[in-house]
Specification:
Number of strands: 0
Radius of gyration: 24 Å
Shape: rod-shaped
Number of helices: 4
Strand content: under 5%
Helix content: over 70%
Distance between the termini: 31 Å
Structural class: mainly alpha
């Protein structure tokens, strides 16, 4: 009878370790996605730095309204600030995210 209990414990332990590996992998994917967003924002910021309002507005098409350079730069600042907050919170709550949310 003891061998049945130990087999069940071993199976639960294996499932627990597998769930932990999957949860850590999911958090890693989430973190890589955040890094990708940061890279994309950096590229957009480089493009916005080199843009001038006069050349920017001349590309305004007939049926489209294009944001000014300052509007784009302001939006980038807000996006980077939001990304910084999400990244900080993700790192702060990494153990809880892995244990509770992504272990399912």
């Amino acid at each position: 009878m003891a061998s049945i209990g130990s087999a069940a414990r071993a199976t639960r332990g294996w499932a627990q370790r597998r769930a932990n590996r999957q949860a850590v992998a999911r958090f890693g994917e989430f973190w890589q996605a955040l890094q990708g967003v940061g890279d994309a924002l950096a590229e957009a910021q480089k493009a916005a730095k080199s843009a001038e309002d006069t050349t920017w507005k001349t590309r305004n098409q007939r049926h489209w309204n294009i944001a000014s350079v300052e509007e784009v730069r302001g939006s980038l600042r807000h996006c980077k600030s939001s990304l910084r907050i999400v990244s900080t919170q993700a790192k702060r709550f990494e153990p809880q995210l892995i244990v509770r949310d992504w272990r399912r």
